[in-house]
Amino acid sequence: MAEGGLSEPRRRSVQCPSAKGLHRIAYLEWGDPRNRDVLVCVHGLLRSSRDFEPLARELSSHFRIACPDLAGRGDSDRLPDPALYTVPQYLADMVTLIARLDTESVNWLGTSLGGLVGMALAAQAGTPVKKLVLNDVGPLIPRAALERIGAYAGERQVFGTFDEAERYMRDISTPFGPHSEAQWRFLAENWLRRNADGTWQPHYDPRIGDTFRASMPEKDMDLWHFYDAIGCPTLVIRGAQSDLLARGTAEQMRSRGPKAKLVEIPGVGHAPTLLNPEQIGIVRDFLLQGETP
């Protein structure tokens, strides 16, 4: 947008309650604050709000966009009790965020964990979600994929240099698929924070990984009861090599619940980063479908 610097994000925060007190959720807001057409973008387990920057810049002329850092990530507060790092708490926080945005309805884009939160919200009676984009996540999650993520989630990593940290991040993020050097750098910058002594470490509370592993299901995670309760138009984006969203599950999502539209991204596993124009275009076309120009 040309006027008022509306293509740049505004840093905001909102206080949210938990069983152990209040915590602050930080979020970046893009686009015209008067726009009643709102898009909420929520990141994956160990990522942050800044991952959506290229997409938000592209879509901020159409939507007011809010990209939160889930509790314990990025600029949001860490929770006093790590047992609170669960979908019910994230869901409650996002309901508070939507109330702060002062809107009756939202479009929702969620990657991985962000998609699980969106799926749970869209399944509620009286949900504010009018369109839902699930980025490489569905209602049946293989335990093997959860174990793969749990193997590195929340490791107490400290790196001597940024380049060393970026190499490690690239290694664990291989399923993201091919990216340019600039894109890998961007992803690493969003993942890291510099310490006072000059070392680098991931931006999130490492106790998130402890809770993730402690709550590992004995078998595949089955959330079909949530998905089948969704009534809004839904888009499923699947990395063609994803181990978290199996092709069979994605195909079932086309015929059950909201009967989602399915798009596969070739050469990518878990999860598409939505940095490339082609991937951003998939989201844009779905969200604007049926909208008046």
SS elements, strand count = 12
Helix tally equals: 10
* Number of spatially distinct domains: 1
Structural class: alpha/beta
Approximate strand percentage: 15-25%
The arrangement of helices and strands along the chain is: EEEHEHEHEEHHHEEHEHEHEH
**Overall pLDDT metric:** 94
Identify the strand order in the major beta sheet: 1-2-4-3-5-6-11-12
Shape: globular
Query: Which consecutive residue ranges, at least 5 long each, have pLDDT under 50?
Result: 1-5
Oligomer: single chain
Query: Under the CATH scheme, which class?
Result: Alpha Beta
Task: Report the radius of gyration as a whole number of Å.
Answer: 18 Å
3D architecture notes:
The protein is an alpha/beta fold. The protein has one domain: Rossmann fold (3-Layer(aba) Sandwich), CATH 3.40.50.1820. It has helices at 53-59, 87-101, 113-122, 143-150, 162-172, 181-191, 207-214, 224-227, 247-253, 277-288; strands at 10-18, 21-30, 38-42, 64-68, 106-111, 129-135, 140-141, 192-194, 200-202, 221-222, 234-239, 261-265. Helix 5 (162-172) crosses helix 6 (181-191). The chain starts with 9 loop residues before the first strand and ends in a 5-residue tail after the last helix.
Quick recap:
This protein is of the alpha/beta class. It is 32% helix and 22% strand.
Topology summary:
Blueprint (H helix, E strand, L loop, with lengths): L9 E9 L2 E10 L7 E5 L10 H7 L4 E5 L18 H15 L4 E6 L1 H10 L6 E7 L4 E2 L1 H8 L11 H11 L8 H11 E3 L5 E3 L4 H8 L6 E2 L1 H4 L6 E6 L7 H7 L7 E5 L11 H12 L5
Parallel strand pairs: 3-4, 3-5, 5-6, 6-11, 11-12
Antiparallel strand pairs: 1-2, 2-4, 7-10, 8-9
Helix pairs in contact: 2-3, 5-6
